[in-house]
Specification:
Order of helices and strands: EEEEEEEEEEE
Number of strands: 11
Distance between the termini: 37 Å
Shape: globular
Length: 114
């Protein structure tokens, strides 16, 4: 099982980034997916989640209206479109897969700074 995040980087406040999470080693379409983030000295926060067939999405209040989670089951890939980024969004972002078990990626760093 492997989850590999990409797309992080440095962006100015107000900018956008699109994170991707490429999955392999399990049946992607059978797993709910999502993104967590964790900033230094802060608790891990669930950012967004999406059901197996994209019928249900959920967002943290802090990102509602700015972030969009999506998935492409044909490509075994999860996405997080992040718009209107704020310094408070800076963190390590981790994707996860959940069915009977949780699988985690290694994370991708997002830095929001001018």
């Amino acid at each position: 099982v492997q989850l590999v995040e990409s797309g992080g980087g440095l962006v100015q406040p107000g900018g956008s980034l699109r994170l991707s999470c490429s999955a392999s080693g399990f049946t992607f379409s059978r797993y709910a997916m999502g993104w967590y983030r964790q900033a230094p000295g802060k608790e891990r926060e669930l950012v967004a989640s999406i059901s197996r067939r994209s019928g249900t999405t959920n967002y943290a209040d802090s990102v509602k209206g700015r972030f969009i989670i999506s998935r492409d089951n044909a490509k075994n890939t999860l996405y997080l479109q992040m718009n209107s980024l704020k310094p408070a969004d800076a963190a390590m972002y981790y994707c996860y897969a959940h069915c009977d078990y949780y699988y985690w990626g290694q994370g991708t760093q997002v830095t929001v700074s001018s």
